[in-house]
Design a protein that fits this description.
The chain folds into three domains: 73 residues, no CATH class; 186 residues, no CATH class; 173 residues, Rossmann fold. It contains 17 helices and six strands. Strands 3-2-1-4-5-6 form a six-stranded parallel β-sheet. α14 links the parallel β2 and β3. The longest helix has 27 residues. It binds NADPH dihydro-nicotinamide-adenine-dinucleotide phosphate. NADPH dihydro-nicotinamide-adenine-dinucleotide phosphate binds next to α8, α12 and β5.
Length: 456
């Protein structure tokens, strides 16, 4: 019975991943995954003959309460931090389980799996903590590097593995092995910190995905130690999907994963146009000018970015698109795979405003349409439309495919200032004669444009 219930849970997790692969089915995927997890917890409670039920129930209640409140209150833009914390806690839990099970674990492969879980779970825990601090701006988002960093990192990892070998040789039993196991955890925590410190802010979500894969592997190893099939299945799914997501995000940014992780050690300073140079003239316009441009266009492409999420302007942008469509303007949205701060960020936001899915056009499909587009309306996006990705070798985003809004007849940027995007580099397109800037919070600017279009 227990194995059958675990099988059902495992199938739920697989269906959840399938559901999460498309915005249309993501909500269903989430629910199916949660149902699988609830079923797994019920099985543990009903079949394991657990001791200490009361403290366990209290811990479950506390975790559920904190998780539910935090998840409901969190801003969409802070989801990566939340994922980082959840992920770190998972890695830490896997390491704790392994630590407690060491003495009763069989020698050989199970013991090796427990030590693997100790190291990887601890790295994931502390690494996720640093990613949280970076994204929450509790510390600098810039890469933190120091002379000999790669050697210190490599040396510390070697020490963690060395203590792991001591545990293995001591069969995980006795005072020496126990002390070595605690040392494995402590040194691995340092490894996790050293692993994430050199990663720059814009790359942190990719590292979160990688640490997520680490947590999956640690959980799978803990499952092997405990002889729990479902933990092995769930951990492997997380490990595999986290690895694939990491690769896809790196590919969408046009960067090898090694460059993301260790690029700061070899960087020779920000090549290309760094932001903060001398002021150059730009064409600043008012909402009425933008309304005329849009209202009399034949085809408009909206390119949303991180600023749309910050401003929570998804409903207002949809209102504008509906108004324009009613005037006979063809409107679509060009979605860059890494616009915003997490994969699928723009899809989620626009789905929240019930933008029809057929208006959401992927980057590769929208680019050929841009030369036939009258106006590209860039709402809080910057890096994902920055031509430096094509023209400035050495710039942090060089090689990243972009939405080529410069091909459109006119470009309108909605942003608050001349500050750069996440990559911290100037966008030459802002100074192009065909570009107009409407300064202000995206939601407020869009509301003014909506009012002006209505008045046309
Ligand atoms: P960017 O961070 O490049 O630019 C966002 C722009 O929005 C800024 O220029 C900012 O300008 C503007 N902005 C911020 N708040 C507001 C507001 N309230 N109203 C109007 N404008 C606002 O975002 P993109 O989406 O173009 O690019 C995403 C970046 O994040 C890329 O560098 C990508 O590599 C990176 N990234 C994305 C991941 C993902 O999975 N999506 C993962 C990892 C990294 P101003 O301050 O002047 O208003």
């Amino acid at each position: 019975m227990r194995d059958f219930a675990y099988l059902v849970s495992g199938v739920c997790f697989i269906l959840a991943l399938k559901g999460l692969s498309s915005p249309r089915t993501a909500r269903y995927g989430n629910l199916v995954g949660a149902a699988g997890a609830v079923l797994a917890v019920i099985v543990v409670f009903t079949t394991k003959g657990l001791d200490h039920i009361l403290p366990i129930l209290l811990a479950v209640a506390a975790g559920t309460a904190v998780g539910a409140v935090v998840a409901r209150r969190v801003q969409m833009t802070a989801i990566p931090q939340l994922v980082a914390i959840f992920n770190g806690v998972g890695g830490g839990a896997a390491a704790l389980v392994a630590l407690l099970e060491l003495a009763s674990t069989d020698d050989g492969l199970p013991l090796a799996a427990a030590i693997f879980s100790l190291i990887v779970g601890s790295v994931s825990f502390s690494g996720s903590g640093v990613t949280f601090a970076k994204l929450q701006e509790l510390m600098t988002g810039r890469p933190v590097i120091f002379p000999g960093g790669p050697f210190v990192f490599g040396g510390t990892l070697a020490i963690a593995i060395g203590f792991g070998i001591v545990v293995f040789v001591g069969d995980g039993q006795g005072t020496a092995a126990s002390a070595a196991a605690v040392a494995v955890v402590l040194v691995s925590l340092v490894v996790g910190v050293l692993f994430v410190l050199p990663v720059g802010g814009a790359d942190v979500p990719i590292v979160i995905s990688l640490l997520n894969a680490f947590t999956g592997l640690a959980v799978a190893a803990s499952g092997y130690v405990l002889g729990n099939t479902l933990l092995i299945v769930a951990g492997t799914l997380v490990g595999a999907s986290g690895t694939l997501l990491t690769r896809m995000m790196a590919a969408a940014m046009g960067r090898p994963i090694t460059n993301i992780l260790f690029g700061a050690f070899t960087a020779r300073g920000p090549a290309g146009a760094a932001a903060g140079g001398e002021a150059r003239p730009v064409r600043s316009v008012g909402p009425e000018d933008v309304a005329i441009l849009l209202g009399y266009a034949r085809k408009v492409v909206v390119v949303p970015g991180y600023g749309l999420a910050v401003a929570q302007a998804q409903h207002t942008v949809r209102e504008l698109a509906d108004l324009l469509a009613a005037r006979g303007v063809v409107v679509s949205y060009g979605i860059h795979p890494v616009a915003g701060r997490m994969p699928g960020h723009m899809n989620v936001l626009l789905a929240e405003a019930s933008v029809p899915y057929d208006q959401l056009v992927e980057m590769d499909d929208i680019n050929p349409e841009l030369p036939y587009t009258d106006v590209a309306l860039v709402v809080g996006a910057n890096d994902v439309v920055n031509p430096a990705a094509k023209t400035s070798p050495g710039s942090p985003i060089y090689g990243m495919p972009i939405i080529e809004v410069g091909q459109a007849g006119a470009v309108v940027f909605l942003k608050r200032s001349m500050r750069p995007g996440f990559a911290g580099i100037e966008n030459e397109l802002m100074y192009d004669p065909k570009t107009m800037l409407l300064f202000g919070d995206a939601k407020e600017s869009l509301a003014k444009v909506v009012a002006a279009v209505k008045a046309l």
